[in-house]
Precorrin-3B C(17)-methyltransferase (Fuscovulum ytuae), 510 residues
Amino acid sequence: MTPTQQAGRVTVAGLGPGADALVTPEVTAALAEATDIVGYIPYVARIAPRPGLTLHPSDNRVELDRAQTALDMAAQGRHVVIVSSGDPGVFAMASALFEALETRPDRADTDIRILPGITAMLAAAARAGAPLGHDFCAINLSDNLKPFAEVERRLRHAAQGGFAMAFYNPRSKSRPHQFTRVLEILREECEPARLITFARAVSTPEEQLSTVTLAEATPEMADMRTVVIVGNEATRRVGRWVYTPRSVPAPTDAE
Amino acid sequence: MTPTQQAGRVTVAGLGPGADALVTPEVTAALAEATDIVGYIPYVARIAPRPGLTLHPSDNRVELDRAQTALDMAAQGRHVVIVSSGDPGVFAMASALFEALETRPDRADTDIRILPGITAMLAAAARAGAPLGHDFCAINLSDNLKPFAEVERRLRHAAQGGFAMAFYNPRSKSRPHQFTRVLEILREECEPARLITFARAVSTPEEQLSTVTLAEATPEMADMRTVVIVGNEATRRVGRWVYTPRSVPAPTDAE
């Protein structure tokens, strides 16, 4: 440990989907020991101010700057917690921190911890029943950081492989047409009766949950606070619940 | 609510990968209110006995019996918690409960709650860095409930789709040869330098973590307490960490 690094550290912590009851004790302890909280504005807003704690909210799409700032503060001996919604390793700040670390050999010895959280798709699945009860994929539908052709390629492989799917960032004001295209691709690959759950803001007061068939699904059922879960061929309803059985019979030619 | 159902309920709760610090407050509260705990022996062993609480440990592979028992106890007014390791919706008891419910119209009105937990792959990913930082799949390698041909089909689609992958139940004494075959399939689909992390018993005193290349991976690196994480083509090391970048360039012909 070099003199400039003292006892600082960077912790990347998952706050879960919204409710305090879904924040792990490990994360709560890290927040209690922090000197600085770094993160996207709405996530930092979830942290209660207290003496000795500095909040550093920042805008969306500045993940690398945020990570650099955290590494620099840790080098000054600060205990920095970068907060993510859900799990920090699922389409969130953990990868951004390592991308930043790769460009900063002077910070290579930083004490780093990644603390898992309840990711949105699992909170949503629990509310709906067990739609991810068999093999599944998680796909970020945003094309901020990848070409949409890559999204399409993955959708088709996921469908053809018989996976259930969870979509993060399905739709935003800047790209409303893409989720329309996603539904078209799903309709080419899956039967019309395939079940889709739209789960918005799970575990918050704004929670909304609805399950429809692929034939009934429309683009405006999703927004950026929604996780979309597409079942596999066997996913079905029992009462108000949606679940995917654990068993798979031998493959057939049926769609 | 029929007279036989009184105020009973069935809660399916995820205990996370092992450490108490990874159990959500929501689950802790449910356990505190329970009259009965149902589950696989090692998971029930994690629950501290107390007056008024009956523990019902059962063997592996009796998931449906366990779920039936829980439904019947709830009908007698008991507050039953079915405990799962990790998240109950990921290759665990939530689907089994709904399968049981489907066969029991007399229990259709049961008050059911599914409480999410930290699933093994996300705890493992956090320890390793952020290997699931981009699109990924979760695959149960056990062929107890599906033909191995289905496992193979999914592996190939996951690899060809450019997904990172997390494998649950990679290897058991009764089918040691299958993980050998999984590695062969991966070698057909992925480049030899592909990174694979073997994460055993994360967050417990028996935790072990190692990352090797696909060329170096051997079947005995996994057992039933291991989660295996295969990166995508871009997954790389930075210092002692393994991570998958958030960005994907336009697809190329490169393997």
